[in-house]
Design brief:
elongated, two-stranded antiparallel sheet, 434 Repressor (Amino-terminal Domain), mainly alpha, 5 helices, 136 residues
Length: 136
C-alpha cells in the first residue's frame, strides 16, 4: 500500500516537471542556475554580515530589485555578477559538467579509422557547480 502511494506521488511529480516546450525548459533551467548563483551570493552576504539592503546600496539599485533577484523574478546579468565580484573581492568560477547522454554540440568531420570523433561539448543543463573564490 505504501509503495503504491509513493509510486503515485512520483508519477504526479514527474507530470508536474514536464515542460510544454524546449523554451519553457530553458527558461526553467535559467532560473535554477540563477537561484544557485543567488544562493552563493547569500553565503557571501552572510559571511560579511551584510543585508540585502546593503547589497542594493553597493550595487546602486533599489532594495526591491535585489528582492526580485533573490526571488527569481529578475535574473542576474554578467555586469551585475562583475559588480558583485568587485564588491566582495571575489571571483566566480563556473564549472560545467558534461552529460554524455546529452551531446548537444557535435562537430561533423571526416574521420580516419584511427582518429576519435571530434566532439565539442557544453551542456546548459544541471548539474553544474559554482564556486566563489576569494582573491585574498
Amino acid at each position: 500500500m505504501i509503495s503504491n502511494k509513493l509510486d503515485a506521488k512520483i508519477i504526479k511529480l514527474n507530470q508536474l516537471l514536464k515542460f510544454k516546450s524546449k523554451e519553457e525548459k530553458l527558461e526553467f533551467d535559467a532560473v535554477i542556475i540563477h537561484l544557485n548563483i543567488m544562493h552563493q551570493i547569500q553565503e557571501l552576504l552572510d559571511n560579511k554580515k551584510m543585508s540585502h539592503a546593503d547589497l542594493a546600496s553597493a550595487l546602486n539599485v533599489s532594495p526591491a530589485f535585489v528582492s526580485k533577484l533573490f526571488s527569481g523574478d529578475k535574473l542576474l546579468n554578467l555586469e551585475k555578477i562583475a559588480q558583485i565580484q568587485n564588491i566582495f573581492s571575489t571571483k566566480f568560477q563556473f564549472h560545467f559538467s558534461y552529460n554524455a547522454k546529452k551531446n548537444y554540440f557535435k562537430k561533423k568531420s571526416i574521420q580516419s579509422k584511427r582518429s576519435k570523433p571530434n566532439v565539442v561539448s557544453s551542456s546548459p543543463s544541471i548539474p553544474y557547480s559554482l564556486a566563489a573564490k576569494s582573491d585574498n
